[in-house]
């Protein structure tokens, strides 16, 4: 099998052998508390492994770091477009315009992108960057939310699962949509969910997001009609 190698390099302080040995461990970080989750490299490792590839680190103290990401190379003919593909389908088959959603994501770019995507579907969206910010919004009795959409690896000492547990204790009918990377799946290893809770595994497409939203709105509609 042939592979393509993507290399990302910096000229920073580099890694000691001890740090390099743990670089892919979930939640391991050398940053101060609240400044990083330790999930970036572990998510890259998980993505590469699931794709049949691998990740290697080349580093030394004072000499910067190189991360080599090896991914299987596809050689073949371009797949023909499906018939009727020119006709664009609507983003979702379910009316989402009545949903009020709280989006919690610390990555600014991803938060903005998701907010715009959700608004395009007619959803009323409010955002927070940390679990603490989200809890302040949830504590406001004048605010009503149908869905909490939260990343699991949040900074500041409160992860997404802890936030969801606290939020549902305040608002029992709140539906939850978790966004989680490969490394964070251990947070849910011993958990079972009812249909009011859904999980999106990163990286995900808009089609995958729509599928989860459709499931949630179906649950919300049935709850409101009972």
TrEMBL record:
<dbReference type="InterPro" id="IPR001789">
    <property type="entry name" value="Sig_transdc_resp-reg_receiver"/>
</dbReference>
<feature type="domain" description="Histidine kinase">
    <location>
        <begin position="1"/>
        <end position="75"/>
    </location>
</feature>
<keyword id="KW-0067">ATP-binding</keyword>
<keyword id="KW-0547">Nucleotide-binding</keyword>
<keyword id="KW-0808">Transferase</keyword>
<keyword id="KW-0597">Phosphoprotein</keyword>
<keyword id="KW-0418">Kinase</keyword>
<keyword id="KW-0902">Two-component regulatory system</keyword>
<feature type="domain" description="Response regulatory">
    <location>
        <begin position="100"/>
        <end position="217"/>
    </location>
</feature>
<dbReference type="InterPro" id="IPR003594">
    <property type="entry name" value="HATPase_dom"/>
</dbReference>
<protein>
    <recommendedName>
        <fullName>histidine kinase</fullName>
        <ecNumber>2.7.13.3</ecNumber>
    </recommendedName>
</protein>
<dbReference type="Pfam" id="PF02518">
    <property type="entry name" value="HATPase_c"/>
</dbReference>
<dbReference type="InterPro" id="IPR005467">
    <property type="entry name" value="His_kinase_dom"/>
</dbReference>
<dbReference type="InterPro" id="IPR011006">
    <property type="entry name" value="CheY-like_superfamily"/>
</dbReference>
<dbReference type="Pfam" id="PF00072">
    <property type="entry name" value="Response_reg"/>
</dbReference>
<dbReference type="InterPro" id="IPR036890">
    <property type="entry name" value="HATPase_C_sf"/>
</dbReference>
<feature type="modified residue" description="4-aspartylphosphate">
    <location>
        <position position="151"/>
    </location>
</feature>
<dbReference type="InterPro" id="IPR004358">
    <property type="entry name" value="Sig_transdc_His_kin-like_C"/>
</dbReference>
